Amino acid sequence: MDTLSYKTVFANKSTVDKKWWIVDADSQILGRLSSEVAKVLRGKHKPSYSPHVDCGDNVIIINSEKIALTGNKWKEKEYISHSGYPGGQRTITAEQLREKDARKVVEKAVKGMLPKNRLGREIFRNLYVYEGTEHPHEAQKPKELKF
User: What is the pLDDT of residues 21-71, one digit of tens each?
Assistant: First the structure.
């Protein structure tokens, strides 16, 4: 019996095949969109997935200002941050965050679905979110990703 044929093959940085995908967030539900995007960023859709390697693809999200939330979440969903000083807790609603920077709503949703470690921070750099339909990644020839 040939034991070399039974070895498990793990992906590494040099063997990973990264692709570019573009997602239109127009009238998409935030949580459903971000969970699918997180899966593609992580690489779980590939048969060569390795949990300890950044083997996911690059994702471009356009029309982030047209994302949808169900129910009363635009007014009731709160994002909490803390400055580190006493009394430094700040809250902002989803509607206020969208007015300030619509990209942050999508980025925070996707980032919360990635691992909370060095690998998660490295994977998050493969996400590009833009307001409107224009983006500077035409040279990468991204393919459209449908959900």
Answer: 999 999 999 999 999 999 999 999 998 899 999 999 999 999 999 999 999
Q: What is the pLDDT of residues 118-129, one digit of tens each?
A: 999 999 999 999
Answer positive or negative: Cα dihedral of 107, 110, 112, 116: negative
Show the domain range for 27: 18-70+100-144
Indicate the pTM of the whole model. 0.91
Is 13 contained in some domain?
A: no
When divided into structural domains, the chain yields a total of 1
Structural domain contains residue 91: no
The CATH code of the domain that includes 48 is 3.90.1180.10
